[in-house]
Amino acid sequence: MTDLENKVLQAATGEKRLNPDEQRLYFGTFAERVVLSIPLEESRLEDVQNRFSDILGQLNKKYDTLLVKISPKLSVSNQMVYMKTAQELHIQATIVDEKNAQSPYGIIVHSNQAENVANPLLSDQFPISHNEPKEAPKKGFWSKLFHKN
Asked: Beta partners for 95?
């Protein structure tokens, strides 16, 4: 009986979407369409903003149609960076402010069809390569004494 009551309540409130919780999580799209998700904290990083054009370019070659959804929890300047980058690559970008949405993501890039990406997180698909300078080999006593390499 409670299942019937839930359906009646949903119909009365106007919620007629398929799997609305998943759509709230991914800014109005389904999980199988998401090709890249950037958590809110990472989307605020300047490094991610600088790399976003290259990342979108790579994804644009891989998928036919891409759409960028931006969280309203980002600052206006961050939102504009992502909007401009997407527009430069002729990709539609929108800021999605959905009522009752508690998404941990700042940016969602998705296709208009099911792509079924196993793990769409930025850190898994495009890891940051830390090119740290290699340490010079330590010189021994005699090479220091005679200034030889």
From this structure: 70
pLDDT in tens, 28-48: 888 999 999 999 999 999 999
CA distance 137 to 128: 26
Nearest alpha-carbon partner for 82 in 107, 64, 105, 100: 107
Q: What burial class does residue 28 get, using C-beta atoms within 10 Å of its C-beta: 0-12 exposed, 13-18 middle, 19+ buried?
A: middle
Reported pTM = 0.73
Contact 35, 110 (CB under 8 A): yes
Structural domains present in the chain:
29-127 (3.30.1330.30)
* Rounded Cα–Cα distance for residues 117 and 33 (Å): 8
Q: How far apart are CA 4 and CA 1, in angstroms?
A: 5
> Can you tell me whether residue 16 is helix, strand or coil?
coil
Per-residue pLDDT tens over the stretch 91-127: 999 998 877 678 899 999 999 999 999 899 998 988 8
Cα torsion 45, 128, 93, 40: sign: negative
